[in-house]
């Protein structure tokens, strides 16, 4: 009968055996990995909240004024008439962001708690379905094909405009 030996190995014992030490991770490396993870988690959280607000808007027990507040805040983002135009570099987007945040807080406050929890459950189910059903290869091919066609059209249009200007 064979005996199995389990040996715990740490980096210090490996250094003694091999004479080669592994570099310790720097604080910058750890910080960049944690910030990347944090950005990804925040993006996923924002995406989930957008799903929740979509389900709140479509829910039959959501009051009309809650739907109106959501429609007005979304409408402001797409409106050509704004307090601060979006083409102004920083503050143009900050007012859009502020309206979006205030609209989300208002919708959250006006929505009944049971409807909000039901919509959160629907958003969780939608996220699970999205994670279980990866995109097909055909869909990815279609996306790449469309992007390539747009790029080709942009290059062709630029060449035609340049030829027209220089002649």
Question: Characteristics of this structure?
Answer:
mainly alpha, extended, 6 helices, 167 residues, 0% strand
Describe what this molecule looks like in 3D:
This protein is mainly α and 167 residues long. The chain has a domain at 134-167. The protein contains 6 helices and no strands.
Secondary-structure blueprint of this entry?
Blueprint: H1 11-18, H2 27-58, H3 64-78, H4 91-110, H5 113-132, H6 137-166
Helix pairs in contact: 2-5, 3-4
Radius of gyration (Å): 26 Å
**Helix percentage:** over 70%
By DSSP, the count of extended strands is: 0
Tally of helical runs = 6
Calculate the terminal CA-CA distance, rounded to whole Å: 90 Å
Largest beta sheet, briefly? none
Given helix and strand content, the structural type is mainly alpha
How confident is the prediction overall: mean pLDDT?
A: 79
The topology string of helices and strands comes to: HHHHHH
Contiguous low-pLDDT stretches (5 residues minimum) are: none
Shape: extended
Q: Report the portion of residues in β strands.
A: under 5%
Quick take:
It is built from 6 helices and no strands.
